[in-house]
Amino acid sequence: MRIGSLVRAGLILIIIFGTVLTVCTLNGDDGYRVKKSPFFYLYHPSALLHPFGGGDEHEYIVTPGHLPLEEGDVVDDSGADKQITFWELPLWIQLSVISGAVFSTVTLLKCLPLLLGKVLSKGINPKMQEIASYIAENPGCMESEIAQDLDLKRGTLRYYLSRLSSDNRIQKFKKGKLKGLFHITSSKTEEQKVLHLHRKNENRKRILEIITERPGITGKELANLLKIDKSTVHWHIKELHKDDLIDSKKNGRYKMYYPHVSILSDDID
Predict the structure, then answer these.
(1) What is the pTM of this model?
(2) Segment-wise mean pLDDT, segments of 10 residues, the chain, 269 residues
(3) Strand-pair category, 32-36 with 22-26
(4) Is 256 helix (H, G, I), strand (E, B) or coil?
(5) Chosen CATH of 192-264 out of 1.10.10.10, 2.60.120.10, 3.40.50.720, 3.40.1160.10
(6) Are 74 and 60 in contact (CB under 8 A)?
(7) Which residue intervals define the domain HTH arsR-type in the entry (predicted)?
(8) CA dihedral defined by 223, 227, 230, 235, rounded to 10 degrees?
């Protein structure tokens, strides 16, 4: 906590005590003497209308009754528990309450924006916001991509990702070997997320494009078009087939590949 916050908190406490504090002193057999506190004059300028000092005009003396009663004593309790209104109280008490309420209200209004600002800013970190925006603009991105593009250390990034995930601002999606980060506002279904993550691999993306454009193509033809090894093509096809993104049909010695119905409605970009 900063020193300024401690000072403000201390001043508020002093104001509160100065508003309500009175001094009660035991005055021997006379009973309890109740009078205004010096703090009252420090924090209530209106009290200057009523001079500070002792005497009957500035204090009340409450004396206890003498018990037990002696034979023949008469107790007059006709005025006991009498209720009076606020406006029947002495002027200095009225001024104390009114000025105290005004002073406390002004103090609260002065401090309220600061307190609200701290509450609203809690959990909102510029770097976290930057990471969340990056994920929204790059759905399915990996930790390595974020760390490199935003120049963050992996440990720091994982801390921010954990907070964003606990705040339900991002989703850590994983299916099999596929994993990626999506913003919570993403409208993609699970199938679309799987397709999106497969497309992040350039060779796999090209295979999907070619199979969609030329249904019934063989693995050998794909290898020739992509100029990559046939075994590499078969490995990508196996992964795509496992997630129901392509179908295959055997024709003699060759397998022909077709796009699955689930990806026909999605544009391959």
Answers:
(1) 0.51
(2) 53 55 40 46 47 47 57 61 71 81 81 64 76 93 93 92 91 89 89 90 92 92 92 92 90 88 58
(3) antiparallel
(4) strand
(5) 1.10.10.10
(6) no
(7) 184-269
(8) -90
